[in-house]
Amino acid sequence: MNTAGTLSITETTISFSNFQISTYSNWVLIGCPFQTPTPFSTYFNTTSCEVIKNFDGYWMPNGTMNSIQNLEPGKGYFLKLKN
């Protein structure tokens, strides 16, 4: 480009008030769909999930030694779901 110009970027925020994951019995890889940290316990419990892992740690429903607690924007998670 030989002349000065202006680039305008507009963002659109998407609401995830009805967040759902297709359940498969095994491991599922998801990205965080939220713009703020959201507790795993908001969407997962002992009847739906065995463990959630990423490179920072793990979370288990009713776990006492969990090293991660939230879905964090920009991160991915491996979910071991129950049937």
- The low-pLDDT segments are none
Task: Tell me, briefly, the overall form.
Answer: elongated
User: Mean pLDDT score, rounded?
Assistant: 85
Characterize the main sheet.
Answer: 4 strands, antiparallel
Describe this structure in words.
The protein has 83 residues and is mainly beta. The protein has strands spanning 27-31, 38-39, 49-54, 57-59, 70-71, 76-81. It has a domain at 27-81. The strands form two sheets. It has a four-stranded antiparallel β-sheet with strand order 1-6-3-4, with no helix packed on it. Strands 2-5 form a two-stranded antiparallel sheet. Strand 3 and strand 4 (57-59) form a beta hairpin. It starts with 26 loop residues before the first strand and ends with a strand. The model has no long low-confidence stretch (mean pLDDT 85).
Itemize the secondary structure elements and their pairings.
Blueprint lengths: L26 E5 L6 E2 L9 E6 L2 E3 L10 E2 L4 E6 L2
Antiparallel strand pairs: 1-6, 2-5, 3-4, 3-6
Short description:
By secondary structure, this protein is mainly beta. Helices cover 0% and strands 29% of the residues.
Keywords for this structure?
83 residues, mainly beta
